[in-house]
Design a protein that fits this description.
two-stranded parallel sheet; alpha/beta; about 120 residues; single chain
């Protein structure tokens, strides 16, 4: 093993990345920079639900809720897209306490608009 290879903590390791294709590359690049060999194997696809009815009902009754909890960046983005599709803005969440699972989700909530 060369000195350069040994300086990389993931040298000689194979890492399988299961994120959706559109979200995998940045993570894969970080792993490769750390010396890993990366295999992209997306196990999920992010797509709209079969029915928007449960989310629409929750958004229509948002005034009845004290909290809105988001568990992923994808959840934040899909909620924003749905609000836009219905001619509403994320401002409907004002007055609610917002919770985010993880720093990336918190960052997505702080963004003024969803990423395209």
């Amino acid at each position: 093993m060369t000195a350069v290879a040994s300086a990389k903590p993931l040298a000689g390791r194979l890492v399988v990345v299961t994120r959706p294709r559109a979200q995998a590359q940045a993570f894969a690049t970080l792993l490769e920079e750390a010396g890993a060999t990366v295999l992209l194997v997306p196990t999920i696809v992010i797509e709209p639900p079969a029915s928007w009815e449960p989310l629409d009902r929750a958004l229509d009754g948002i005034g009845d809720y004290r909290w809105a909890v988001f568990t992923s960046v994808n959840g934040v983005e899909m909620t924003r897209r749905r609000l836009e599709q219905r001619g509403r803005e994320a401002g409907v969440l004002r007055g609610r306490r917002l919770a985010a699972i993880g720093p990336a989700t918190a960052g997505a909530l702080r963004e003024p608009r969803a990423r395209a």
